[in-house]
Amino acid sequence: MAEYKQVPVGAPVGQKFMNWVDNRFPATKLWNEHLAEYYTPKNFNFWYYFGSLALLVLVIQIVTGIFLVMHYKPDAALAFASVEYIMRDVPWGWLVRYMHSTGASAFFIVVYLHMFRGLMYGSYRKPRELVWIFGCAIFLCLMAEAFMGYLLPWGQMSYWGAQVIVNLFAAVPFIGPDLALLIRGDYVVSDATLNRFFSFHVIAVPLVLLGLVAAHVIALHEVGSNNPDGVEIKAKKGPDGRPLDGIPFHPYYTVHDIMGVSVFLMIFTAIIFFAPELGGYFLEYNNFIPADPLKTPAHIAPVWYFTPYYSMLRATTDQMMAVLSLMVAVAALLAIFKGRFPALARWVIGVAAVIAIVLFGGFKSLFMMLGMTSAAELAIFAGFDAKFWGVVVMGGAVIILFFLPWLDRSPVKSIRYRPGWHKGVYGLFVAFFFVLGYLGILPPTDGRTLVAQIGTVFYFGFFLLMPWWSTLGRFKPVPDRVTFAAH
User: Fold this and answer.
1) Spatial separation of the C-alpha atoms in residues 9 and 51, rounded to whole Å
2) CA-CA distance, 51 to 115, in Å (whole number)?
3) What is the pLDDT of residue 381?
4) CA-based, 20 to 30 A from 412: which of 53, 93, 333, 479?
């Protein structure tokens, strides 16, 4: 049993109250451990605003979501009308709805920037692997939450976007059709789908999301925050046991973050009041039309934050799989005939390459070129179709982020002390990500598909080749203490 703390007889009422609380709940202990006595590096910069902003947007989404649920009807016959009722008849309903829709895009903006900061400064490196993994799980959960919430307005783009994405699951071999049926709850996107997505969007996924956010913060505070230099501040402590390069999170960074929050809220409110649709990027014009299962929009595209991955999906064509098969074949031949591998390893590489090429449909493409086009002739070489590999690529683009702590073999954490050309690689990665996002909004053409394929190959090459390229070049010496200039 914990020791019961006493206060002097003449202590103020506030002190007596907090003592009463602390004897029953560790309020002061939690405050000290996670704010007042949580020491953070003193050289945080602009990039460190986005973690607290992500938490702010999460609160905005939960609060506005609660008020929207009070008036929303999860019924295919009433959903669209209930959203119109919120917008036109509920007092301040338009503001709450626009805060929620703008908040969805704002959430992804701050999370993407938060993840990019981690990528630049090596915040996923030892001992912060779990912090990164929890963060990636939050991102995956956020994507599920956004996708399910996107169906709820029951507009044209909501309906047909959900139809396209859910149908992708049907491409999974063997279990695909049953899986798609399970997700939809019907043979087409219908009232059953709307009810399922509503329950997951409002209850199930937010509970998981809140748990992951708590785990992310706890893991971060256990190992301490990273900084732009990638120097561990716990390595240099004063006689009092406190980091020499650390300052308490409160009041220094709580005040620091208030400035970031103020700027963010000015931009956020400007968008809400003057451009809530933001030219159709935050709210598509087709979504102001009630869902019509009999009328397909001319061009179906997801919201902007999904478009880089949607672009990768569309880029995965039969021709691309044929090129990948050729690359696998060349790599295997070089490994077998030029590599210094034992005989057994060469056989394993050869068999693995043949299996990969068959699954990619490479042999099917070859024999089609040779005129063997009948179903019987191609059956044995059929492999999986390009649509399935597109789903794999789209999912793999997110899943690969989880392995980043073990892919990066650089001797230093921060990009500040890496070779200059590494910054160019990171810059190209960001540029291709933007290009993929833009192409995902546009209707596909041969030229756009080719650019998307190049971007997709670069995206995966950035991560898969990281164990090699992250070790190349001349690295700058990392200082023993953080570099800091007062401002």
Assistant:
1) 43
2) 9
3) 53
4) 53
